[in-house]
């Protein structure tokens, strides 16, 4: 019996010139990924509005801008019938969290995975969150681990897989990779969403 396959894209994009630029680039990557036949596209850590790294000027957190940006990207997902995992940030009870926003192919918000394990350089900028979540895209169930959560705290990846039953996902501001236990399915180095599109079997 043939194993069903699932095609996804990893959007390795240039650092945005502004928060508005991040939305424009992400919207185009959604269109490119869909045109390449992907059913899901993932973005770098905090791509919208931009990762708050030293030397990278990003405007102060703006919940109104983020809501509008998420709505715009949701509309792009609905227009191109593709699910997206968008690296972003969000304010929760006055705390700024690094987050992955999951948008369904109908544009609906499926939920957030906030970063639980922070890098030392992120202390004082972002606040660690709690809890892990599983998402569904068609027949694929998956969890998300953000940046060094996946390689410094491997339990964040392993913990997703038994719950999801399919795959754990690690994403960073430099690259995105997919993991099953002890298996690197996709590595970094692609520059556009259409070039990053790949397929894998679902057990």
Description:
With 203 residues, the protein is of the alpha/beta class. Helix content is 26%, strand content 31%. The protein has a six-stranded mixed beta sheet. α1 runs parallel beside α2. The termini are close together. The model is unreliable at 164-203 (pLDDT under 50).
Record keyword descriptors for this entry.
31% strand; disordered C terminus; alpha/beta; 26% helix; 11 strands; 6 helices; globular; 5-stranded mixed sheet; 203 residues; 6-stranded mixed sheet
Set down the secondary structure blueprint.
Elements lengths: L4 E6 L8 H17 L4 E3 L20 H18 L2 E10 L2 E9 L5 E6 L19 E4 L2 E7 L1 H5 L2 H4 L1 H5 L2 E5 L4 E5 L2 E4 L6 H4 L1 E4 L2
Parallel strand pairs: 1-2, 2-3, 7-8
Antiparallel strand pairs: 1-11, 3-4, 4-5, 6-7, 8-9, 9-10
Helix pairs in contact: 1-2
What's the short story on this structure?
The protein has 203 residues and is α/β, with parallel strands linked by helices.
Percent helix, as a range, is: 25-40%
What is the radius of gyration?
16 Å
- What kind of sheet is the major sheet? 6 strands, mixed
Q: Would you count the extended β strands for me?
A: 11
Spans of at least 5 consecutive residues with low confidence: 164-203
Which whole number gives the mean pLDDT? Answer: 79
Main sheet: strand order = 5-4-3-2-1-11
Order of helices and strands: EHEHEEEEEHHHEEEHE
